[in-house]
Amino acid sequence: MDSKYINGLDNDKKLQNAIKISKDNPSIERIEKNCIDCGMCKNICQQREGIDDICDGKLCVNCGQCIQFCPVGCIVPKSSTEKLKQAKENKKVLVAYTSPAVRVSIGDEFGLEKGEFIQGKLVTSLRKLGFDYVFDVTFAADLTIMEEANELISRIKNNGVLPMFTSCCPSWVKYAEIFYPELLPNLSTCKSPIGMQGEIVKNYFSMKNNLDKKDIFTVAITPCTSKKYEITKDEITGTDLVITASELADIIKNENIDFVNLKDSDFDPLLSEGTGSGMIFGNTGGVMQAALREVNYILTGKKLKNIEFKNISGMDNVKESSININGIEFNIAVVHKMKDALPILEDVKNGKSKYNYIEIMNCQGGCVGGGGQPKLLPSEEINQKQKRIDSLYKRDKQDNLRYAHENPDIIRVYKEYLNNPLSNISNKLLHTKYKDKSDLKEKVKQTS
User: Rounded to an integer, what distance in angstroms lies between the CA atom of residue 371 and that of residue 76?
Assistant: First the structure.
């Protein structure tokens, strides 16, 4: 490489090969002076997302995979931690909640074993950073399963729109809104786990603790840069800020917190730990497995003898299976890496799909491979992601509670507040609608 590019792009040059990132992109930004214009970011967008058009912040699906593969680290999660500082200064009640995939990745930043399950230290570090309450998004993953499993059964029994797609991944949802708007009725109406968690904190938790929800400032700790985009949507009102795993690690280091030697602590009660089903949301196939466990219980009233569906786990980018539950055939597919979903989406679009339930995650490996995770060397990517996945499944196996309906906090929130899945209040707080954004493609072409 020419020596004048070693420390960044030559001042007299303009970016020719790199993707374009608009200044109003809520998820990612580029440190222009450090860019060597190698084009790796554009290649990743084409190879993994299947997006060949200009990534200008409108067609960008905000996944942050360009961050993971930038060789000089010039693309980073867009920081909004100034908002957290302001919330502290305004004496807000600070509430953090952590996604499952963060606890198997954040240790990477502190020299701990790759994939090690670091839950207790993570909770303690957030308390040291000044959070008044620390909750577990695994609770909301269980809540998502309760709503989504019942929605799927309702669609099947009442001739609803099928196949039903999962809706946990905001990059996939945005991709559908832009490139496949005709499939929006197929998406589950469930908000993502952080979407649900924010609503429960602002409404149920505030009520139980006699707090004005206007005084609460909620922060989701996620593996995902796309969550930063998600909370800008009008329909997602409960979460005020998203901080990625890599950003949190930087904050911990800047505050001189000795993460490795922190003592473990537990989540706060009420919205505490979830079940094994919620835990495996952090990897590809996890949502499908958790949903099928619950669907089986709803339809049969019994627990599965073999709770694990091995044929829909693992790092193959497309996995499929057929499972008969109480006389209903569930033909399912699990996809991670957006480009690999395109043949399946085309079949659904053309009325040729053989499936009735499909899980799609944008990032390879699922949330464990999110753009906001600590970076992995390309040569180690698959191996290290598998370690993160194995760690989540190990925790699932160790958990005494492995079905969403067994979660005591889930039982309590339905009894005291939500009534039952798909109730009027559940639909109001936990479900959403989608918007056709296909006109963005034309707007980008006209301005490019």
Answer: 9
> In the CATH hierarchy, which fold is given to the domain comprising 81-430?
Fe-only Hydrogenase (Larger Subunit); Chain L, domain 3 (3.40.950)
Residue 177 annotated as catalytic:
no
pTM of the shown model: 0.94
| 148 noted as active-site residue | yes
Q: Looking at 182, 235, 255, 346, which residue is catalytic?
A: 235
Is 188 considered catalytic here?
yes
**13, pLDDT greater than 70:** no
Q: In the annotation, is 367 catalytic? A: yes
227 is catalytic: yes
Within 10 angstroms of residue 333's Cβ, the number of other Cβ atoms is 23
Look at residue 81 and give its three-state secondary structure: helix
pLDDT of 310 > 80? The answer is no
Q: Is residue 380 annotated as part of the catalytic site, yes or no?
A: no
Q: Which residues contact 348 (CB under 8 A, 6 or more apart)?
A: 163, 183, 186, 355, 358
Q: Where are the domains of the chain?
A: 3-77, 81-430
Report pLDDT digits (tens) over 272-295.
878 999 999 999 999 999 999 999
Considering 151, 177, 294, 359, which one is annotated as catalytic?
Answer: 151
Choice among 367, 387, 391, 406 that is catalytic: 367
Is 60 an active-site residue?
no
- The tens digit of pLDDT for each residue in 18-75 reads 988 888 899 999 999 999 999 999 999 989 988 876 555 578 999 999 999 999 999 9
Say yes or no to pLDDT of 438 above 70. yes
Q: Is 14 a catalytic residue?
A: no
